[in-house]
Design brief:
The strands form two sheets. The chain has a four-stranded parallel beta sheet with strand order 2-1-7-8, sandwiched between helices. It has a four-stranded antiparallel beta sheet with strand order 4-5-3-6. The protein starts with a strand and ends with a helix. Strand 7, helix 13 and strand 8 form a beta-alpha-beta unit. The longest helix is centred in the N-terminal third of the chain and has 21 residues, at about 60-80. It is of the alpha/beta class. It has 14 helices and eight strands. The protein has two domains: about 5-125 and about 205-310, Malonyl-Coenzyme A Acyl Carrier Protein, domain 2, CATH 3.40.366; about 130-195, 2-Layer Sandwich (Alpha-Beta Plaits). Keywords: Acyltransferase, Transferase. One of its GO terms (cellular component) is cytosol. This is Malonyl CoA-acyl carrier protein transacylase. GO terms for molecular function: [acyl-carrier-protein] S-malonyltransferase activity. Its EC number is 2.3.1.39.
C-alpha cells in the first residue's frame, strides 16, 4: 500500500460556513472551535459560520479561521484512525500541518496565526504591494524576469511555486513590470490577485521580525511524523527546523510543486486535503494526475468517501 499525505490549505480557501459541518459531526471538532474562541477572546466561530465575507477574508481573521477549520476536520480523520505518513500545508496551512504532526499545540498555533495575520496586514501600507498569478512561463524564465526588475529598483520575487501557476509578489510597480515582461516571454495569462499585501516577499520583513519574537516564546516539539516545510520542500521532524521554517516562510517562496513532487517520489499515492475548499487538491491533480487518489475532507461524508477510496486502492 502507498503512503498518505495530509495537506492543509492556506489563505484564499476561506468560505462562510467552514468548520461547521465538522463541528456538527464531531464533539471533538466542536471542542477545537470552542478552544479557538476562548484562546482568541472573541467569537471566531460566529464569523466562520455567518461572515460577513469581507470580515472573514481579512488576513488576521482568515488565518485563525482556516487553521481552526482544518484542525476541526482533522478530528474526523483521527476518529477513524486515518493517519498520515507526511503532512504539509500551503503558507498559513503549514501551522495546521505542525499541529497535526504534534509539533505545536492548537492553542499556541491559533494565537500565533492571529498575530501573523495582524503583522502581515500592517507590514506594507495599502497600495504599495501587490501579487499576481502567472500562467504558462517556465520557472527559470520568470526568475530571470523578477531578478531584472528588482535590480532596476522595483522589488518583486517568486512567491508561490504552485506548478503550472507561479505567483509573483512585491512592490506594486515591480509586479506590474514583471507581469508585462512575463507576457512578452509567452505567459498565457497574468491575473492580479485580490490580496491585502505582497505576501512571501522581502517587503514582509517587518512581519517576519515580529513573528520571530512571538514564536521565540512558544514551545515546539519534534514532530511525530515528517512535515514538509514550504521553504525547503524537504522532510523534517526537528522542532528547531520547523520553527525556523515558519518564520522564514513569511518572506520566502512557497515551494508547493517541489513539495508535491517530493511526496510522490517518497511513495505517497493518497493525498487528503483537510479543511476548507479544494484548492490544494486541484494543484496536486495539475502536477500529477495518474496513479494517485486525491480527497478533500470537511465532514463525515467526506471521510466515508476517503475510507472507501483507501480500501479500494488505486
Amino acid at each position: 500500500m502507498g503512503k498518505i499525505a495530509f495537506l492543509f490549505p492556506g489563505q484564499g480557501s476561506q468560505a462562510i460556513g467552514m468548520g461547521m459541518a465538522a463541528a456538527r459531526d464531531s464533539q471533538k471538532a466542536q471542542t477545537i472551535i470552542d478552544q479557538a474562541n476562548e484562546t482568541l477572546g472573541f467569537n471566531l466561530s460566529a464569523l466562520m459560520e455567518n461572515g460577513p465575507d469581507e470580515n472573514l477574508k481579512q488576513t488576521e481573521n482568515a488565518q485563525p479561521a482556516l487553521l481552526t477549520a482544518s484542525i476541526a476536520a482533522l478530528q474526523l480523520l483521527q476518529a477513524e484512525d486515518i493517519r498520515p505518513d507526511f503532512t504539509a500545508g500551503h503558507s498559513l496551512g503549514e501551522y495546521s500541518a505542525l499541529v497535526a504532526a504534534e509539533a505545536m499545540s492548537f492553542k499556541d498555533a491559533v494565537a500565533s496565526v492571529r498575530k501573523r495575520g495582524e503583522f502581515m496586514e500592517q507590514a506594507v501600507p495599502s497600495g504599495e504591494g501587490a501579487m499576481a498569478a502567472v500562467m504558462g512561463v517556465e520557472r527559470t524564465i520568470l526568475e530571470k524576469v523578477v531578478s531584472e526588475v528588482t535590480e532596476e529598483g522595483s522589488p518583486v520575487q517568486l512567491a508561490n511555486l504552485n506548478g503550472p501557476q507561479i505567483v509573483i509578489s512585491g512592490s506594486t510597480s515591480g509586479v506590474d513590470k514583471a507581469s508585462e515582461r512575463a507576457k512578452k516571454h509567452g505567459a498565457r495569462r497574468v491575473v492580479p490577485l485580490n490580496v491585502s499585501g505582497p505576501f512571501h516577499s522581502q517587503l514582509m520583513e517587518p512581519a517576519r521580525k515580529q513573528l520571530q519574537e512571538v514564536l521565540k516564546r512558544i514551545p515546539f516539539q519534534d514532530s511525530k511524523f515528517p512535515v514538509i516545510p514550504n521553504v525547503s520542500a524537504k522532510p523534517t521532524t526537528s522542532a528547531t527546523i520547523l520553527k525556523d521554517s515558519v518564520i522564514t516562510q513569511v518572506t520566502a517562496p512557497v515551494l508547493w510543486e517541489d513539495t508535491v513532487r517530493y511526496l510522490l517520489d517518497a511513495g505517497v499515492d493518497t493525498f487528503i486535503e483537510v479543511g476548507s475548499g479544494q484548492v490544494l487538491s486541484g494543484l496536486v491533480k495539475k502536477i500529477q494526475r495518474r496513479n494517485i487518489q486525491v480527497f478533500s475532507v470537511e465532514n463525515q461524508e467526506d471521510v466515508a468517501a476517503c475510507i472507501e477510496g483507501i480500501k479500494g486502492g488505486i
